[in-house]
Sequence to fold (1021 residues):
Amino acid sequence: MNGFDHWALTLAVFLPTAGAVVLMLIPSREELLLKSTALVASVAALGVGIYLTAHFDYNRTSTLQYQVNRRWIDVINSHYHVGIDGISLPLIMLSLLIVVLCVVYSWDHFPEPHNPKAFLILMLVLETGMVGTFVSEDLILFFVFFELVLLPMYFMIGVWGGDNRQYASIKFFLYTLFGSALMILSFLALYFKAGQTFDIPTLIHNGAALPHGTQVLIFTGLFMGFAIKVPMFPFHTWLPDAHTEAPTVGSVILAAVLLKLGTYGFIRIALPVLPDAARTWAPWIGLLAVIGIIYGALGCLAQTDLKRLIAFSSVAHMGFVMLGISTLNSYGINAAVFGMVAHGLITGMLFFLAGSIHERFGTREIARLGGLLKQAPILGWILGFCAFASLGLPGLAGFWGEFPAILSAYQPAPGLSSGAFRTYMVVAAIGTVFAAGYLLWMYQRTAFGNVKTEFEHAHIHDVHVPEYVAWVPMLILIVVLGLVPSLIFRVTDGPVQHVTAAFSPPVVTVPSSAAAP
Amino acid sequence: MILAAASTFKAPYLDYHALAPEIVLTGVLCVMLLADLFLPEERKYLVGTLAGLGFLGALLPIVTLAVQAHHQRVMFGGAYVVDPFALLLKALFLVSGYVVLLMSTTYIEEGDYYEGEFSFLVVAAVLGMVVMASARDLLTIFVALELLSIPGYLLAGWRKRDLKSNEAMMKYYLLGVLATGVMLYGMSLIFGFTGSTLLTDIGRSVSGPAGNKPIVALGIFFIVVGFAFKVSAVPFHFWAPDTYEGAPTPVTAFLSVASKAAGFVALMELVFIGFAGRHDVWGPLFWGLAAITMTVGNLIALRQTNVVRMLAYSSVAQAGYMLIPFAVAGDNADATHTALTAIIVYLLVYGAMNLGAFAVVIAVARKTRSGEISSFGGLFSYAPGLTVMMSIFLFSLAGIPPFGGWFAKVYIVEAIFKSGTPAAVVLGVILAVNSVIALYYYANVAREMWMRPVPDEDRTPVRVPVPVGAALGITTALTVVVGVLPNLVGHLGDLAQLTGALGK
Fold:
């Protein structure tokens, strides 16, 4: 490992922070300078990300690479331990890319009350939190980064958001904090029960030996923390509000990356560290996941606001991801990771589009929109493309997140009731039909038909340059990943096999607590 | 006769190096009194400068003593000890005293209050705290407590033409005296049973079956209740909100940080040395106090519209968090050690963030002339720097990384898990729920500052006086650095083993 490899992850995490510090020193009237600095910082971080991808050893995807393990907080034996494997790599790249695109997108239309300086600083701090979470291999470090995303997002929604922003922002904050308060209790319980360490690889090694009862208790705390973040039904109620009120860029980052922190937590921490508890919990997680799929879809059908509709579709899509995770087999978890990336790109795009439509028409009421294809054909076609991607059309990225997740429920990991999971499978499959229903109905109402009278004479811009720059990379990725899914599966499969190894050998269902004295 | 007695009198051994901070402070006090007499009105601020120099001067010997921290200095037969624990807390008291002076200079000058006497009383109170950090004897603790309390009573009423300030002083004084009485009664019971005022002697006498007597339990109960007043634990917190609101804001900052910390220091000495063997008595007592203090403090804070009252109830709740380690300390030796460290770490971090929050309140109130939370509306649009700092302090108080408060809280949870009993874990869950409740009112101020319009569209920038700016700089730096590199305070806390504590 050369010197740069040693610093690469740290750079990817803290370059945005450095950018934020520089931004603080630039007076707020120098807008162009502020924007270029933010762009440079985020592009530099993306550059590091590309380096990471290029030099990643694809033959050893399940081992941690670019590892750094330094002393950090001695008194609680917590280390600055970072490293990435095949599961983290795609998510890091997604985060780095999305932030660059968000900076570009907001180039000449910052939401009210303007103030690009503060907005960009928050965005960069957010980037540090997101990337940091994906590289952490120490629970305390993970916790700090996991929480670090809360503050910027709180301010982003609360200051730059819609009419109901204050309520939405505090709701988002309180919900997530409640989850993470229980999560940190579980982290500390793990520390004391599993060998006085916060090191995730060590805990994965030690955790399986914990008595079943202890595992289930600790898992409950982790579950609350991660499930609220995902969010799973019935903890999802913060999401529609937060998404709807957030400024466009905030919604995009929230949908594309923040929700993944929860699912990532399940795959990285909860499942491998506490396999027995995961097996106990899996049917319940699967149940909540399919409820989420159906509930989200029905919620979508009832929405009149474009952004709120997309927000509810997130609940449904994250339900597929969680269903994949709950099967505890490699097929399902691979699908889950793919689903995370695909949902990030597609729903991120949909939020971009909703933001642009709102900007042009001054409304997101689906009933007032119509005839988008006539007034802004390119925008209309992109919306159509993304709607199809979102409903899981084969050949586009969304398909590879949904279809294998459903399929994997046919045969969950040994020890799980295949009857229950096959029921889930059927329900989830019905969910995809709903998805097609609400997305196509939404598309029909907004893009087809005639322009509504109130907008007949309005001048509606078609896609302009910053939007092209921000969107084209995502659209290309949606197609490329749809056509060549192995780009991601090849990277994730190794570490996923590693995770599921704990579940796949036929398990004699004697709880280990019975063996303990 | 007297002469004969004098010849048998043996001067106690005095370690002047160890006593240097106290001596410096006493010397500065005398100089300040004299200087105040002779200085003309317009140059009274020099007394404050003297006080500041005194604090910095007293910090010097602490540094030299800390260098030889392994060398533990015991005087007066164990009644006065200078060990790393004492040094660390003395430094905390001196620095917070200094920050309070920085915050108050402009406030006192502009309010046209007595300047010289103000600084004099602050230094006197800090001297009491510095003594408290070394006290290992019931009498010394009592004297130190009086020395730090009486200036506090006076300072609370410093705005003498303001009825609220008078009320603040009266409430603080009456309840404080009552608490002292209760505590003294407890001390007399303990002295009566053990025949000694030395904490180490008491520790030996009350532990084990021999000390398992109702009278001991009663004594411990009264002493703990006495200090519960001091640290404003529920149900002995009634004075705190009124006193905090009525007192001059810098004094409120002083009372809620330094004075409260002194109460906790005394509790640590008493509980970890004197009553270490009787955790069956104080363990449940602290469990109840902690649970009810944080819950009640947070719930009432939710309803406050005045920022100082809100911070007052928040400090009640924070005291509740700091009582948690006491509740779990007795369960095993490991938990005792972690609990002690957790309290110290929390005190250090709490000092920085709470003083900082009050400094912002003082800076903003100079412009808005109001203590209402609504007067912070739209602060971000005309004072972004202050807004960011206030947000840092508030979210640190709420325990959100990456600001200092999160580490202090995690340390408390660590003490809980070191104990590991079901009761301790229940307390941990109560703490978690309380953290969420608390976030609401802290975020409420943040919301006012960032997301609400300016009340009367008055966007004239806030001019921050240099001393207040310095206070803000110190506290912000501490809050952020501790949050990102917690190892710094983690190590400090680790050094601070309380000499003579159980298991040492």
The first helix of chain A runs from residue 3 to 25. Residues 161 and 424 of chain A are 37 Å apart (CA to CA).
